Amino acid sequence: MNPFSYSRAENVAGAVSEVSRVRTAKFIAGGTNLIDLMKENVARPRHLIDITRLPLNRIQDTDEGGLRIGALVTNSDTAYNPQVEMRYPLLSRAILSGASPQLRNMATNGGNLLQRTRCYYFYDTATPCNKRERGTGCSALEGFNRMHAVLGASDQCVAVHPSDMSVALLALDAVVQVRGTDGYRSIPITDFHRLPGDTPDIDTNLGADEIILSIDLPPKGFADHHAYLKVRDRTSYAFALVSVAAALEMSGSTINDARIALGGVAHRPWRNKDSEALLHGKPASEENFQNAADAILKDARGLQYNSFKIVLARRAIVRALKHAAHLEKQQ
Ligand SMILES: Cc1cc2nc3c(=O)[nH]c(=O)nc-3n(C[C@H](O)[C@H](O)[C@H](O)COP(=O)(O)OP(=O)(O)OC[C@H]3O[C@@H](n4cnc5c(N)ncnc54)[C@H](O)[C@@H]3O)c2cc1C
Ligand code: SF4
Question: Is 121's C-beta closer than 6 angstroms to any atom of ligand 2?
Answer without folding.
Answer: yes
